[in-house]
Amino acid sequence: MSDPELLPLLGRIAAALERLAPPPPEPVDLDVAEAFVFEGRERLRPVAKVHRVELDLLCGIDRVAQILLDNTRRFARGLPANNALLWGARGMGKSSLVKAVHARVNAEGLGPLKLIEIHREDIEALPRLLQIVAAIPRRCVIFCDDLSFDQDDTSYKSLKAVLEGGIEGRPANVLFYATSNRRHLMPRQMIENERSTAINPSEAVEEKVSLSDRFGLWLGFHPCSQEVYLEMVQRYAEHFALPVEPERLRREALEWATTRGARSGRVAFQFVQDLAGRLGLPLA
Q1: Looking at the structure, do residues 142 and 44 belong to the same domain, yes or no?
Q2: What is the separation, in whole angstroms, between the first and last Cα of the chain?
Q3: Considering the domain boundaries, does residue 44 fall inside one?
Q4: Is residue 65 a part of any domain in this protein?
Q5: With 104 labelled, which of 98, 143, 167, 282 sits at a CA distance of 20 to 30 A?
Q6: Is residue 172 part of a domain?
Q7: 61 falls within a domain
Q8: Residue 47 Cα distances to 114, 115, 116, 177, 233, angstroms
Q9: Of 253, 263, 178, which Cα lies nearest the Cα of 214?
């Protein structure tokens, strides 16, 4: 093939490759919203309205709520603050607390503090997200809900280096909050397998447990009592102005928890949603 014939062919090939290539990432502008979702490929999708519960409606977790709120306030003021791991019983308000604290700090005028959610499956891209956010003059809380690692999952090693211990360290304008049902983020079987196959079993276990140690705050959430559960229901019912007699509210709330086999903040809110629907009232 001669040069005059080759050049047009190469041009068509180059044009085709450009069409197949992903579009360049849009410039990151954190001023368009207060919360974002990281979708990989350097894209932060703004969240127009964050689905959250007001901080005053979260009961049974007063102590951990105050600790996380104080830690976030210090961070928003530019003072030292710790990464936080919120672990424990399901449905007790771990992720709700993170979102509620973010809203409270901004409402107090300590912001603008940005909340960026990263999904568990995108954790390997966390180093790149930190690079992006580090170059922006805004304080950001990066939030990963339901963080845990399964058998043969090695992405936890990159997370360890990002949180603490990497040569660059955590950017000064970034804080990392994670929720998990597991205190050590890994199943017992995974740790025991490492112990049984390692030359030095204790060192293998130390490597697994050390990920949780990278979080300066461990905030535990525990199953609630019947009294606390009923208080949760009462607060929601009063907040949404549901016209229901106290005795009926108590009776139906206990029946709902019995059928669900659990008592938690999530179960309480689901009951209130059901009750409002039966009453024909919206949850404004």
Answers
A1: yes
A2: 72
A3: yes
A4: yes
A5: 282
A6: yes
A7: yes
A8: 11, 10, 9, 18, 28
A9: 178
How many structural domains compose the chain? 2
Q: Compute CA distances 6 → 87, 187, 280, whole Å.
A: 62, 59, 72
Instruction: Tell me the residue range of the domain where 237 lies.
Output: 226-279
Q: Cα dist. 167→9, 134, 135, 137 in Å? A: 47, 15, 17, 21
Are 239 and 210 members of one domain?
A: no
Q: Are 165 and 231 within one domain? A: no
Q: What amino acid is encoded at 142 in this protein?
A: I
Q: Looking at residue 242, what DSSP letter applies?
A: -
Strands 174-180 and 44-46: unpaired
The reply to whether 216 and 260 lie within a common domain is no
Domain termination residue (choose one: 221, 250, 270): 221
Indicate whether 97 and 232 sit together in one domain: no
Say if CB 223 and CB 92 are below 8 A apart: yes
Give me 190's structure tokens: 């995974």
Phi and psi based region of residue 165 (left: phi greater than 0; alpha: psi -120 to 50; beta: remaining): left
d(CA 175, CA 98): 12
Q: pLDDT tens digits, the chain, 284 residues: what are they?
A: 456 667 777 777 777 777 776 665 566 788 899 999 998 777 899 999 999 999 999 999 999 999 999 999 999 999 999 999 999 999 999 999 999 999 999 999 988 999 999 998 888 888 889 889 988 889 999 999 988 776 666 666 667 767 765 667 788 999 999 999 877 665 555 545 555 555 545 555 555 566 677 888 999 999 999 999 999 999 999 999 999 999 999 999 999 999 999 999 999 999 999 999 999 999 87
